[in-house]
Amino acid sequence: MTRVLVVDDEPQLVRALVINLKARKYEVDAAHDGASALAAAAARPPDVVVLDLGLPDMDGTEVIRGLRGWTRVPIIVLSARQASDEKVEALDAGADDYVTKPFGMDEFLARLRAAVRRAEPVTAGGTEAVLTTGSFTVDLAAKKVHRGGTDVRLTPTEWHLLEVLARNAGRLVSQKQLLQEVWGPAYRTETNYLRVYMAQLRRKLEDDPSNPRHFVTEPGMGYRFEP
To answer: Which superkingdom (predicted)?
Structure first.
């Protein structure tokens, strides 16, 4: 059973989320501030974290960084903040998705299912593969990336995007295909997601992110991974 940690200081919203999630057979823990959230995550590690940014004791991005210090659990941000730079800050800190309040419960649940799906180990195919570039190594079987002799910490969404590109190494993968495989059919037009996450992969893996060698943009079409 999938465990969800809901972190929000609005009692009515927490109650609505808990009721809807439990009705769909999720296990749910709730926390009303950042310190409680970090303690709850350590005591009972969740499969997904649903996190408000405006917490009473600390900013939600601090909670994201605290979690990312030891876990790659998917994090879905819920926030009334709509400014693009605040969304980018949360994603850069390690969030996997961003839902703006107010939101529809059906859309939220679809994003939650997508986050769980992205975090699941890939079993199809069963072929072990290691791709080596001049800068880093991608181990598709172990779901790890090594650069400079150390592991590179990727969020589940970053890994899923890299995995799709790596499994199609040398071939153009369309924007629509990437969006559908990584985020789901409802996101086939959300090209801004690709721009944000491709920029994150380049910052983490390219020697010169402004002049990428491995994550190549084909303008208006898609992206290509060149080992």
So the answer is: Bacteria
